[in-house]
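Sequence only, no structure available. Ideas?
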Amino acid sequence: MFRGSISNDQLGCHTRVITPENIAFQYVLAGPFQRLPAFALDLLLRAIVIVILLLGGFFLMAWLNLLPAMGSMFGFVFLVSVFGLSWFYGIFFETYFNGRTPGKKLMRLRVISVDGRPINGLQATLRNVLRSADMNVMLSVQIFSHEAPPYYFIPTMTIGLVSMLLTARMQRVGDLAAGTMVVVEARRLAPASVPIDDVRAYGLAELIPANFQVGSSLAQALGLYMENRKRLKANRREEVAGLLARPLIQRFQLLPDTSHDLLLCALYVRSFLTEKQRQQGVLALRGMHPAISAGPSQPAAYPSTVAT
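Reply:
I predicted one. Tokens follow.
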């Protein structure tokens, strides 16, 4: 859990989250020209769903010859569906898909709390409900045509844009109320040329649950550690690696005396190496310890689960 301080660089395009353990994570802030395409993609997706619902319902009722009798009911259901998509689309996706809507995912953006934690349902609700405030000032269509109805308006998003330009973390009004910010997802790239000098890491990697996914923050911290571990002495490696490894040991149900450094090496193997590279490492491990059998069914047989 991240509860650290926040600091911004001079250009205002990056923000750093510093945890109580003095580990810093740097995020690239998403500006208006990055967020607008994501918003447009989400708007397009919602429009496609609405058109599909409209045409599908219309043709179904026409085929069943129910259109004359239930036309008004269909109109009511359609309006409720449009309302639900308009107001709950962002809330649902940002709550259950780690701060990403389909548009944000395509543009590699994510909503997080200002302290680096994933957002919760309340934060997602606040920032989406207040989106209407960010869309002001509204521009009447009567400016373009005097014959247009007076109750149609075009959102200019002026308030949201001004708010983003004036805040250090490029937050619109909804973000300020919810305590969130939008960041650019870093590509999960492996640290360059990091050799695995202990083949037991390949054996320990087999014990990591197959459904475990390394998030962007953990991947960034793992990459920094692997790039700098050679500079650290063995006892210092265990101390630094323990900040990340201790909760993972409990989560993976490994032996309590599992080497912290070795676990991070194993996590690197699982997350960044190809299947072929992992198989080669397992073969090398078997060559050193012929009694070791393949697969995670015998965790006690792996010497990687013994602290070094």
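Confidence is low (pLDDT under 50) at residues 1-12, 291-308.
Hope that gets you unstuck.
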